[in-house]
Design a protein that fits this description.
Layout lengths: L11 H24 L8 H24 L1 H11 L3 H7 L2
Length: 91
């Protein structure tokens, strides 16, 4: 019998938070499987999820880029670095 999400009678907010967490876990696993060249070992259903997720991710990243969010996040991260850290990183 395939694994399924159980209904624990949670609020929509709690259920949505769990779904977000599960999506992050799946995305991490996808990254590891790709790195090890093991995606072909997955079920068709899992590979379809990965394809859909990749498409969604590409749209999200494009939207973030269009709004300048990724650039602001990058600058905020760079602002936390010391001059020496920037030199070491070649920035």
């Amino acid at each position: 019998m395939p694994c399924r999400c159980e209904d624990y009678g949670e609020s929509v907010r709690v259920a949505a938070a769990k779904m977000d967490r599960l999506t992050r876990v799946c995305c991490d696993m996808r990254t590891i499987l790709r790195r090890e060249n093991l995606e072909s070992e997955l079920t068709v259903e899992s590979r379809e999820w990965i394809t859909e997720h990749d498409e969604w991710d590409a749209r999200r990243i494009a939207e973030e880029n269009a709004r300048g969010e990724r650039a602001r996040t990058r600058l905020a991260a760079l602002d936390k670095l010391t001059l020496e850290e920037r030199r070491v990183l070649g920035l």
